[in-house]
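This part of the workshop introduces the protein records we will be handling. A learned vocabulary of local backbone shapes supplies the integers on the structure line. Getting from the letters to the tokens is the skill we practise here. As an example, a complete record with its sequence and its structure tokens follows.
=====
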Amino acid sequence: MSILFITSTRIGDAIISTGILAWLHEQYPEDGITIACGGPASKVFGEVPNLEALHIIKKQPNHGHWWKLWRAMAPRKWRVVVDLRRSAMPWLLLAGKRYSVPKDRTGRHRVELNASMFGLPSLDPKIWTAPEHRETAEKLLAGAKNPIALAVGANWAGKTWPADRFAELADRIRQMKAFLPGAKIVLVGGPDEREAGATLLEKQDGGRVIDAFGLDILSTYELLRKCRLMVANDSAMMHLAAASGIPTIGLFGPTKDQHYRPWGENGFVVRTPDSAETLMDRLHSDNAAVSTLMDGIEVDHVLAKIGELEARGLYKAEADGSAPR
């Protein structure tokens, strides 16, 4: 039999949901898996074990995308249907077991909320890749010592820390003893985020910045695994770095870090002094305020967090200056 997994359109939410796939594969190792998701999110799932099909959900008027999904999935009986979009689909299909993510009433992290469908406390995200993704990452980082990843973009301007502060942060990170000598700054994100990283790209200074904008998701994951630290806006790249296990600092303002902080023991948060609710209230009263929602985070705040992690020994350099594995 087979499993139907219905998940998000957004890449970040899709990454968060991968722990469910790992658990399902462990419970039913012989079953094929069909994944229904948005086009951007599909890039996360290309190497999922026993993947039978990827069904791309394209929003249509009058809920036509759900009827299209139902017509494609109705002819067979499923062992398990899991739905993270709270649609009626699990109850419209023949299935042995049905799960739908509950509404959040407790303020839990989305990893915990997803796992609660199965009576579990959490299910850590897991990304599957292939040798070609690892090879791509190795080529990009060939000879690089102490690579530090930065994700300067996000899917909404209100979540984006000013680019000039990222540039200052990069300069000051290079001066820290923990990242000497020759720290490389690795810029990751979609091709449309390259403009946000222009300030950093202009300061390459002999190739000290590696431009990984537009790299596919799975190769980016392998790239991040080789980095010593990630500093990111609340974004898909932040969740990808956290899934890789490297120390990840997420920058938060108008979004709730209790729901979307970088998951795992190496995930950390620096947020604005104002709460997400306060910032959104400001935005509702003045739409032009969107460009200032992350201004409350200073470069020194981020450096203090990096210093805190250094004091805890989370990224002690190896003798050759390469990233610890």
In short: Residues 318-325 have pLDDT under 50 and may be disordered.
